[in-house]
Amino acid sequence: MASIDEDDLTDLDDLEKSFDELKLLECEETLTSTPVKRRPCKRNILEDINNTHSESSELLTKKHALTPESKASGLPARKRTMTGCSLNAREIRSRHEVIYSRLCEGFEEKMGSVTNQTALLEYLNVDENDKSLLTRAVKAVFPAADLRRIRKKNYPEMYLLFIIERYQYHNVGAKTNFWKPEYFDNDEDEINSIKMKINASKEVMEQIWVQLSDKLQESPDMITLAEQYARESFEHDKYVHGLVNLYEEEIQRINRQKDDILSSEQKKLLNEEVRHLRSLNEFKDLRKSGIGVRHDLITPDLFNAFCTQVKEKCPLIDSILETICTTANSENNVRKTNELKFKCASHALASLLHIRSSKDSTDFSLLFGLLCISYGAGKQFVNMLNAIGLSLHWDTIMKFLDQRLNNFTSIIKEKFPADVPVILLMDNINIYRGKHRHHRLYKVLGPTMWNFTGRGALVPNLTGIEHLFHKEETCILPQKPILELKANDVIIDNHPEHVKLWNDFRDQYFLQLLQTGLNCIPQPDKDFATMTEEEFMEWLKKQTVEGVQVKENFVIQVADVLKPSVDSSFKSSDVVILPLSVEDNSTINGTASILEEFGKEFGIDCNHQTSFLPFDENKNVFDLKASRNRYEFITHLEEHKKTMLEYKSQLDSTEKDFEHNSCVFQSAEDDKETNEESDDNDDDADEESALSQLKKKKFQKIDGAFKKVYDGVVKKMWKAAHISDPHAFEKFLKEMEYKRHEWDTNSIADHFGRTILHAAVEDNNVTLVKTLITVGVDINCLEGCGASPLTLAVINKNEGIAKVLHDNFALSSGALFTCMPSPLEIAKVMELDTMVKLFETDQDYIEDKILLQSFEQCKPVDSSDKIEIPDGESQVFKFNRSECRSCPTIIVGDNGTNKICRSVKNRASYAFNWCSEFPGDMHTKGYLCEACYKAMADGGFHHVIHTVMKRPKLTREAFGKRKFQDQNLSRIKEAVRDGGVAFGLAAVQEFKKSVYFPTKSQLMESLRRTGSHNEALLTGFKKWLQDGSADDASFKYNTDLISLYAPLLELYCNVTKCCDGLGREVVWFLLLPIFCQLRKRNYWTESLVHIVNFTTKWPLAVRMMMRQNCSVSIKGNRNANIALDEFVETYIVQPLKKYVSGHTTVKMCRRLMANVQIFGQVRNAYTDHSVFDVHVTTKHKEQDPLPDQLKGMQFCLKEKFFSPQKGNKFINKYVDGKKDGHVKNSLVDVFTKGVKKVQDNFDHKMFELFPEWRLGKRSEGENE
Questions:
Q1: Region annotation Disordered: residue ranges (predicted)?
Q2: For 703-848, CATH number?
Q3: CATH number of 90-163
């Protein structure tokens, strides 16, 4: 062999490779007598391992310890070894143990590392046919390894294993074990030992290399030395890699030590950033801000801005958070981005600050606590969150909530100064508390239903109308005297501006029908009317799948005729949600108490007048019954206030006990009575609550006891008067004097305060009156309303009893009569000359004059007759809510709320005449749909929307008593809309085939003059509808849906969205005759009162204010307003029901209501898509109603709803899709008949609803 220079062998890898090439591999092959197709022997690896590891060889020959000594000698050679068959069980176990040992020695788990299958097969000297053996071994040794198959074009199949070679080294086919570091007492000794071994190995390698260089000429010795050098090189490398591994472990250990993580500069920077972070999260914006504007500060931008500031001002913290939270691995949820993770980490960072110091209270801790409370979290849960730093303490949060609840007066004064009008909102809230968890609380408090009242106040937008509140003529005086109001004034035909708006909108509705019917519906090969249901559905399916492809043949332009009442830039409405009232506004007493609460909060006087005795001029008598009813009402109200004070006191004391001891009311009867209490009847929705019923029973009991005493006295008197004994009556009188305590005490009176003497006078029982006077009864006693026995005698025009009382010194005038006129003044007004002469002998003119002035204030008169306008130069008018009672404060409510408000005002007009009702539009839309259904259901409308359109939830109950439940309101509005379009499209199809359809020349002329076909098509369509309605009653009946109900509902919805007050008045003008004709008594009463208010009674300033504020803008977007009562339901009633579901005390309900806007903003901030919402949802899209509308159109065409038949006077009634009888005639032409009915009943209805109308009409009659 040629000599080799030392410089040529500097590369150790090349040298090792050259030696590997010189190795001779022995291959023994076993021969058999029979030639067979051999497969690789599974014993190869075992034999290789036996040659490499002597211990493994012993495993193959050594017997078990319990084997007899006679069999301990070596076994004969196995035959299977000679044939290449499978191994036996012992050999398989031995092979597994060896492979597992080799894998443990040569590899270790390390995340991110990759080893392919080929390397493992070469290292273990396993054939490729035994890959399954390798896979099982790897799974057994490394359970966490991730085995993956990778198939690429032109590349063999591989397994990728997340393991790495131990010490980053392995020698294929090597027979030397890897070196494992020994264990020492400390790391320093271990490292020094390895260094010594490395140096020793290096010296040995240098010596071998010197000898190798000297012996290069001698081939045999050179080979031996080269092998020695290779072994020593291997030893050297394993020590080096072992040392590297120890260094890595030492580095990891150092990183785990806290004191040595950061340098002093980094610690200093981190402390500065933490201090800056504390300044970002202090309550300088939320907790220390104004109580009335806190909810405006809680927005999704709060979290985004905090993350931005952390990135800009705290780079080190930002880097730490990104390192911890962000990853390159993709998430299954595409919304879980690194940006979202960073926001979550920033939120957690605020909690870390709270853990660092309890004084470092953050906005996020407060917001997260409020969020949990809104979902029902209680005291223990919130305090647990506080313990781990996620929330503030429960008491701290309650203090935060109580700040707004206890200081609401300042919020109202700030938002609603006395010189600014206000619009009040209210609605009842019924919360069922019948669950078992709340029974223990209401064992003491009563029923399981909370009947509360949600309230709000709207700051009206007065843009452009401020001047109207600065003049008495427009702010105080009504638009015209109510006595000048005529029946035609409440009909839309007498209001040209409203008529024009309605006609324009209805024309646009017709144009939309023509646009859809002529340009959007392809004509089938077969006429719609002759199609079977299967043929039509097949045609409709093709249109749905392929899409409607119709060439536009007609140029139709549909315009928007509605305009907002305010043209200024759109802003969100300023609404303040007021504290919860525990009163029930479904009762008269509850509503009166709520009105008093409003008056107290907004500075409006609600004191009751002292004198009240209305005069009925028709009968020329004073209305004593009204006076007594007022006394009864005030008595009820005072008792109600006392009861509510006790109730609130009981609630407060019970809640304290409940908070301190949750089991204070628990009893063994809870489980027994659960089923009984859960079956409560919903009687609380009635106008009178159970409490009112108890009061009525109480008054009946008092009246019954009084009547029993009175009847007993009368019976004894008549018995004594008619007995034969002449001394019997004297005995009766003595008995009456002796038993005076049984009949002449303050307790012996009915609930009106009448004594036995009052009852005797009213019964005209002269004998009993004289008898009572004889026994010494108080002749000047007053009943509750202030009437004396002489007052009753005068009102009853009983001169005999009046003279008896007067002769016995009954007072006819003077200071005694403070609650009503004296008997003398009553006699004068009633023109009872005899009594006047009798009483004038002892009257006190001065006292009577003063008291008479007080009495005159109670008479209902027209405000225009009482208000005197001073000269503008002498006095400047300034609006003030507490002084300008003639400028009413608007209260928005549903039909029931307004009805009870009117009842309260009728009972105590002086105290509550400062308010005026405003019906809610959301509920009125439901009433309109109900009226439409009542008029059109029997004529096929119900069958179309229920059966043809396949909407089974549209039942009669859904349009009736359940229209405001289970989302039925939206369903019935869609039913009227789609039903109207279906009927309208059918009308367009029939119109297209009629002679009224414009010719081509007419269409061209219209296009040439106006740029569209609107004029020609609209004129012909309206003419066709008019003539068809004149000829055919059925045609006219079906036309009402497309010319009245459907466009009216469409108009109502649009005016609410864009806040068009003029359009809203149009709707109410049209609703009046509809409700009147359909006998919806409450609805048409509401309509008449509302129309009289905005056309006559309200000052012009109030009318224009409500035009501009008839709906609420939530976010300031155009055409996105909601009705006032819808706002109450959506943002007051429903949120409270949602938030209070997990709480058990009324005090917590009041806290939630006072801060309901804050809770709503907190929920919105957390669930916003730009913050923490990771739910992948798509925006819900309303289903296209056109297919259903086409189904209804085909039914109408098939039934010939719009094929006029001259002289037809009957309308077919449809029952289950079949004709069965005829529709009532009263349901045809509802609007026209309703107008006539309103005119006929106008005077009667006005007389019933407006006291000033009654007084004025009587005065007019007297003057005539």
A1: 54-77, 665-690
A2: 1.25.40.20
A3: 1.10.10
